[in-house]
Specification:
Helix content: over 70%
Largest sheet: none
Number of helices: 18
Oligomer: single chain
Number of strands: 0
Distance between the termini: 20 Å
Length: 458
Amino acid sequence: MAVTHHDEDMAAGHQQSPYLHIAALAIPTFGQLIAEPAFILIDTAVVGHVGGAALAGLSIGSTIILTTVGLCVFLAYGTTSQVARLIGAGRKRQGLEAGVDGMWLALIIGVIVSLGIFLFSRQICAFMGAQGQVLRQATIYVNAVVFGLPGMLLVYAANGIFRGLQKVRITLIAAITGAIINTVLDIVFVVILHWGILGSGIATLIAQWVMSIMLIVPAAMWVVKEGASWLPRITGIASSASDGLPLFIRTLALRVSLFVTVVAAAKMGQQVLAAYQGVNATWNLALNVLDAIGISGQSLVATALGAKHRKETRFMVHASGTAGMWMGVFTGGMMALLGFTATGLFSPDAQIQHLIMVGMVVQAVFLPLCGWMWALDGILIGAEDYRYLAATCTLTSVVYVLALWGLTSLDWPNATWRIAMLWAAINVFFIGIRAISNGIRARGEVWIERAITPHATR
């Protein structure tokens, strides 16, 4: 297909300041992405001073919540791609209605999943390896926070609309507000009122719904302004669910890997599990910095593909990958610095602090690779290359779980070696294999050809 003058003009415009364009979307997008990990990080810092059992219980409970929210990430990713592609094709009203379909789907899923987790919370926590006081603490936290899930899933879907429109500043405002509320209520409920891990869960639930309201209201106003319908459409909701299935499978495979990692950490002892929680909470925050760049590339590439601008698409692949790698260098440096200076924020226990430091330093080394891989992941999601991602992530999960099983079966000298092995395995197998598969795909043209075919902009 010939490259149009308009295509060349767009590429030239981005060549002048491509990274500024990415940053303009990435910085506000980061606001929404860090919401749930930031809540968990705040909970970790506060609950860590309640006791080791409470921190270990939070590790189990927060993993259940993050896994559930993560499995529904297609509500944001899929909606972003649909809205951006339809807008790029000049079909703005249809794009907004696709976003509305995603929000109705989010509400339905959120209510059903919350009820299911609440009814079987103790059994789920026990299945993950929690016992005794750790099981009790984990169950309390899950039951306290679980009905905030519908609010968080609505936030995800609403952000698909904002990202597709490339109007994402409101997400930063909502995230900051949610973090402030969560922090203040954590201190009031846990430190002042001594509610323990229960207070932490309630604080997070309230913050989740405040964020939800802050984003749903402006999203509704925008939809009405453009003449789109807010009424639920069965066919539209079903279509959103169908389109998101491969992306759900991709996310399920990745979350299974992280789930197994927590189970492995639990088998290594309470101190290793508590230290893993400290590192993991920080890692999730760092990854969302990187994911903000990936989502920015996703939105820009989806819009370019909707308009069939090949040259612009290829240019943004390079710019996003480069930006992701350098942001990985920066976040890696910050994580290493945090590991050497601030582990006391997570626990007063000297041994747990040491293990957290080891895990953070190991993870910091690999964050540049994470940044590059996450950027390409966003690009392929923007192209709705979901089947390829589902297949490669499933393969990654199988290899990683087998490798982790083999490594945990070995007789490691002490807890320091075990925590170092755990984070090295995550990066070599869980991140490394995905980096290779994403890199190979992004270099080719198959995903671009598929994205610009007529059915891609239905």
